[in-house]
Amino acid sequence: PLLALIGASCNRAQLPDVGDPTEVGLLRYAELQHAKRLPIDEEEVPFSAEEKYMQTRHTSIVPRAGGHVSFLKGAPERIVELCDTVNREEVLARNIDLARRGLRVLGCAVREQETIRFVGLIALEDPPRRGVREAITQARQAGIRTLMITGDNIETARAIAREVGIEEQAIEGRELDRLSPGELKERVRTVSVFARVSPVHKMNILEALKANGHIVAMSGDGVND
To answer: 208 near 181, Cβ under 8 Å?
Structure first.
């Protein structure tokens, strides 16, 4: 299936478990679907927190594609912006529905010649580690406030926050861009979930917390942390 092929080919991970866990999961999904990944000829758009998607070029297995094909994978709202053929409202509504269930959702598309065609959504379950809710409760009892700062969809972030016991009041990176340092300083007093953020947003949040007199520690599974 093309969806599984895109997930496996527009991907830098290696089995059994080298790379981002989400991308490893996509490789395992492709194996179940018997979709053989295509080697990357060129990484046309490397994934970044700013772009929110990646695009890779491959030697096409379909002769009519002119010899090469490009696969796109990333945040659904970003992917639909790039597509020429897609029902944007339907895709984004489905994305929100899946995200509210706490699923991590990726949009996939294919570029053949000059046309980018939407292919579909992949939803992955990435549950919190065992003991996280208890650890957050213990931290709260010790006077430590826990905030979630994530690149995920805001609805996914809210669902996970609810599951682990973090207050659900949330804000997205694009909203943070409109706040002055003083306004951000006030918002971080009450907002506990920050979604679709970039590394710059993380630093701004950290500085706003420090400006409020807090001692701040940040941990995570990414290079930005």
So the answer is: yes
End-to-end alpha carbon distance in the chain: 36
Q: Which H or E element spans position 160?
A: helix 154-164
Going by C-alpha positions, the residue among 70, 98, 69, 92 that lies closest to residue 80 is 92
Instruction: Give the separation between CA 189 and CA 128, rounded to whole angstroms.
Output: 25
Beta bridge partners of 193: 148, 170
> 147: closest CA among 106, 183, 195, 184?
195
User: Is there a contact between 79 and 118 (Cβ–Cβ < 8 Å)?
Assistant: yes
CB 172 within 8 A of CB 195: yes
- Structural contact between residues 163 and 133, judged by C-beta atoms closer than 8 angstroms: yes
Using an 8 Å Cβ cutoff, are 8 and 35 in contact? yes
Q: Are the C-beta atoms of residues 119 and 109 closer than 8 Å to each other?
A: yes
Q: Which residue has the tokens 């509504």?
A: 93
Reported pTM: 0.81
Helix/strand number for the chain, H first, E second: 9, 8
**pLDDT tens per residue across span 156-200:** 999 999 999 999 899 999 999 999 999 999 999 999 999 999 889
Tokens of 141: 């009892």
**Order of strands, edge to edge, in the sheet holding 170-172?**
148-149, 193-195, 170-172
Rounded-to-integer distance, Cα 105 and Cα 125, Å: 9
